[in-house]
């Protein structure tokens, strides 16, 4: 069959968009690769009434809600998206849609320091609004480059949650260990938690066959798929984006809100009542 909408990505943005479309009586297929960015975290935060819920529990509840409104959720990874919105999965199966909503999120690229990636999402953190309250008052190390604007920004932020925040120069670190950070001179700086900035790269290579490519984000933090309006429309007619794939800084609740907005506007687009795209000249 040809679905009204295929949603590529089953995180908060994709599931929220699918629910909105299902409630609009649209046929919806959600394809989820299971590569949730926040999977290592113990719980989500700053989501009213859902604070502390595990990412796995949140996704399971979201999937059930999509299915309650007639949508279908399929585990799989999209490898290409061709003309006519024909999407091909890694297992060779093909699905077609009238519109695409891309909510595949991003991949965090961490500095190449032994022991760092293994602790990502548990004792290695990035967002004070996501984790700051839980580690308040603890010994925190901010990994970065002295004098770098983003490093200084992180230091000032995390100092709001703890009086014991220390800058750890990235070029002097040889490994991250259970009790702290091993420095080039052999010393161990004990820290309970570490903070590190990542390069955030949109998961959207499969869109290139549609002429839609990832580009550098204006803030210099990685790549994203740009939207041409606040609802998530792209410059490829019929393709919409929401969540971290287009807004790397979005948290769970804002990604869910963006998915809802995109879903509602896709429904309007299918009815032919969406305003013309902005003039980019």
TrEMBL record:
- Pfam families on file: Pyr_redox_2
Alphabetical UniProt keywords: Flavoprotein, Oxidoreductase
- Enumerate the SUPFAM superfamilies for this protein: FAD/NAD(P)-binding domain
Its domain of life reads Bacteria
Is the keyword Amino-acid biosynthesis in the record?
A: no
Q: Which GO terms describe its molecular function?
A: thioredoxin-disulfide reductase (NADPH) activity
Q: Where is the FAD/NAD(P)-binding domain?
A: 3-138
Question: Per the record's keyword annotation, is Cell inner membrane included, yes or no?
Answer: no
Q: Tell me which Gene3D superfamilies the record gives.
A: FAD/NAD(P)-binding domain
Catalytically driven reaction(s): [thioredoxin]-dithiol + NADP(+) = [thioredoxin]-disulfide + NADPH + H(+)
Q: What is this protein called?
A: Thioredoxin reductase
């Amino acid at each position: 069959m040809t679905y009204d909408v295929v949603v590529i990505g089953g995180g908060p943005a994709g599931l929220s968009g699918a629910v909105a479309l299902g409630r609009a009586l649209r046929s919806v297929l959600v394809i989820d690769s299971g590569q949730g960015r926040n999977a290592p975290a113990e719980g989500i935060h700053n989501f009213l009434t859902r604070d502390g819920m595990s990412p796995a529990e949140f996704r399971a509840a979201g999937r059930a809600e999509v299915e309650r409104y007639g949508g279908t959720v399929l585990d799989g990874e999209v490898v290409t998206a061709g003309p006519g919105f024909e999407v091909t999965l890694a297992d060779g199966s093909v699905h077609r849609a009238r519109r695409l909503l891309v909510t595949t999120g991003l991949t965090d690229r961490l500095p190449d320091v032994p022991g760092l990636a293994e602790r990502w999402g548990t004792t290695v953190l990035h967002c004070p609004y996501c984790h700051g309250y839980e580690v308040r008052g603890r010994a925190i190390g901010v990994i970065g480059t002295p004098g770098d604007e983003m490093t200084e920004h992180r230091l000032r932020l995390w100092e709001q949650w703890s009086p014991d925040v220390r800058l750890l120069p990235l070029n002097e670190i040889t490994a991250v260990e259970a009790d702290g950070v091993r420095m080039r001179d052999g010393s161990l700086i004990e820290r309970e938690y570490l903070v590190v900035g990542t390069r955030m790269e949109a998961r959207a290579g499969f869109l290139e066959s549609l002429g839609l490519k990832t580009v550098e984000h204006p803030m210099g933090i990685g790549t994203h798929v740009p939207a041409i309006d606040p609802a998530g429309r792209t410059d490829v007619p019929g393709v919409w984006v929401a969540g971290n794939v287009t807004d790397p800084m979005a948290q769970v609740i804002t990604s869910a809100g963006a998915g809802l907005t995109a879903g509602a506007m896709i429904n309007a687009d299918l009815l032919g009542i969406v305003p013309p795209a902005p003039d980019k000249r």
